[in-house]
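Re-running the complex after MR caught last week's input typo. The corrected sequence lines follow. Everything else is unchanged.
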Amino acid sequence: MTAVVVASDLARWYGEVVALSGLELEIGPGVTGLLGANGAGKSTLLKVLTGALRPNRGSVRVLGQPVWDNPGLWHRVGFCPESESVYEDWSVGEFLRAMCGLSGVRGSAATTRVERALERVGLDPAPTKPMAAFSKGMRQRAKLAQALLFDPEVLLLDEPLNGMDPVGRARTMDLVVELGRQGRTILVSSHILPEVEAMTRQIALLDRGKLVANGDVSEIRDLIEDRPQSVRLRCRDPHALAARLIGLPDVEGVRFTTDPQVLVVETRAAETFYGLLTRLGSESETGLIELLPLDADLRSVYEYLIR
Amino acid sequence: MLQSILSSWRGIRADEVGRAARFQWALAWRRRRLGRSLLAAAIPVVLAVLGAALVRSGWVPVRGAEALGQLILAVHIHILLVVIPLQFGTGLIAQEEEARTLPFLLVRPLSRGSLLLGKFLGAWLAASVLLVASLIVSALLLLGADGFDGAAPWAHYLPRFASLLVVGALAYGVLFTLVGLIAARPALVGVFLAFGWENALAYLPGWIKLLTVRHHLVGLMPRAAVPGASWIAIDPPSAFAGTATLIVAALAGLAIAIAVFGRRDCI
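Corrected-run output:
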């Protein structure tokens, strides 16, 4: 992985409150979900990455460059802040044109960029009403549009889906996934796990200012050895299958459920177990109808690591 | 500190400053921000309308030119010249922070020094336009009240008063910008400086009055335009000394403000 966003021994504190503590993080191209409970350090990390805060210790580099007071970098990086605040008096077009103006782009070049950004987030390209009259979701889209104005290589999105309606949410998630597919580096902070899961399997999980996990959700799950993974098996004869599984080295336990066709197996090595099932025989021999990992999803991983 | 000031200034580029100034200029004329400034700038105009009516009626034995001198001294210089820069200076960054719009500005390709300097210049220009417009409208109303009789010297006085307002807005603007960056409660500290410090110290004998903006501003004032107001300053400086002192102080203050903002966390 080519790291695009790198934090080394990053520490930041506010008085006696430690927000980030010795954080080591590398983010490569694609979409990465930045997860963590309130106070985990997500927002502080994004503020350091956008040069709003200076680290007390350590360093951050984006696209190989330092962040602090490095204006050249901001042609290549887009940021969508968490707060829903916008310039209330301005229409979204005026706001985006002002942002273009601050970036040195004016006239027809600015108009083209504004129209394209608005189209991408699904906002009316010729709105005249001030953004004070915007709903929360429309403000989010306006903020996202300003982050996309210059087609950035790196996008830092702080809770970009907050307050959006389901249609806007789906559209934004599709956009993020598409941008990730194009090879851009996107760091999305969110506390809504299903949303992150819909956009990416790649996560960086923070807890009390430290990086707890960074990588693919499934790979991280496999590394959580103190928690056996649960796999739900639907089969014609659960008792017969259980008899064949019990005692096998990778099977920790077997339990039946209220559903007479369902068996839950606990294993410490899911991949090996899936291979084992294949070796046990064909579907007709084991009576296996369906196999579903129960706790290899983002929520389970999150809960195991944080709680 | 000196090294910090120099390094902050090294990152400043004229085109970036221009962009930030245009941005702030556009922002200054929007409804919400403009409202209070316009209201303040309208006060002397309203007073001038009333004054002109009184002069025309002949109920008070005052000529328009005399009333104008008093109005400028009492309202433009003592109130407006302090209130408008207080508003734009303390709010230059603090208002963006309160409104949580600063992150949009920090991720634009311009240095922090350019951003602050440009925003300051845009706001100062807008404030100067308001102050001078208010001065000219007030002058036209009051001088016109008695058919521009005795208005001839004002062809000389008005540019002097306009310069005073522009230089004063610069000096007060820098002072309040610094307050906005350093003080925990900029509005409160600004009001104290504007109406406590400036009023109390400008008229004291000795060197301490040199620490006020007003003392140096009086040097720019055409005192003949305000007869009987010799009390407004003790040992006033010459127009050149007053202007030079305020400009040098403003440049130094701006240098410090840029250094402070360049190193400041924006939470």
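None of the earlier attempt is carried over here. Residues 225-306 of chain A form a domain with the Alpha-Beta Plaits fold (CATH 3.30.70.920). The first helix of chain A runs from residue 42 to 49.
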